[in-house]
Write a structure and sequence with these properties.
By secondary structure, the chain is an all-alpha fold. The protein has helices at residues 3-40, 44-49, 56-78, 85-111, 121-148, 150-154. The longest helix has 38 residues, at 3-40. The chain is globular.
Length: 155
């Protein structure tokens, strides 16, 4: 194995944690916006119920932890494909919609003993929130990616 090959492999492995941090940052940006929407719509108590709590503070901690996790998985799946703003926005919107189906329509209601895939007025509000989350996740990810890789592109 050549030194150049070993060096490029090392950079690829070292990039995974950086991309994960970019995704966590994007997830938190989207999570604060979506959480604010959920707060206005009185959805946060349901989030607290996921961990057998009624505390809005606990709901925010759970919501932001989930937001960061989803952001990390976005970064690991999308990677460099989401480094530019337009692809990042499209991928983020799609990922937000995917998590609406997985999280809001299936996993959360199943955990809370509610009917799954029940698309009602609250579910449509949740869909709007997931789209806002995904859009902001993608754009924040691209922004952080661009800032952190500015030296790579200028040389």
């Amino acid at each position: 194995m050549t030194t150049a090959h070993a060096s490029s492999q090392h950079r690829a492995v070292a990039a995974i944690p950086a991309h994960a941090m970019f995704g966590a940052a994007g997830g938190l940006v989207g999570g604060v916006a979506f959480g604010s929407m959920m707060q206005v719509w009185d959805m946060m108590p349901m989030v607290a119920m996921l961990v057998d709590s009624s505390s809005i503070g606990v709901a925010w901690v759970v919501h932001l932890a989930i937001s960061a996790f989803i952001g990390i998985t976005f970064a690991l799946l999308a990677g460099h494909r989401a480094a530019r703003f337009l692809p990042a926005a499209v991928l983020g919107l799609a990922y937000g919609a995917l998590w609406w189906v997985l999280g809001a329509l299936w996993l959360m209601p199943a955990k809370l003993g509610m009917p799954v895939f029940d698309v009602n007025e609250m579910a449509w509000k949740s869909f709007a929130g997931h789209l806002v989350y995904g859009l902001l996740l993608g754009l924040a990810y691209a922004c952080v990616h661009r800032v952190m890789h500015r030296d790579d592109t200028s040389s």
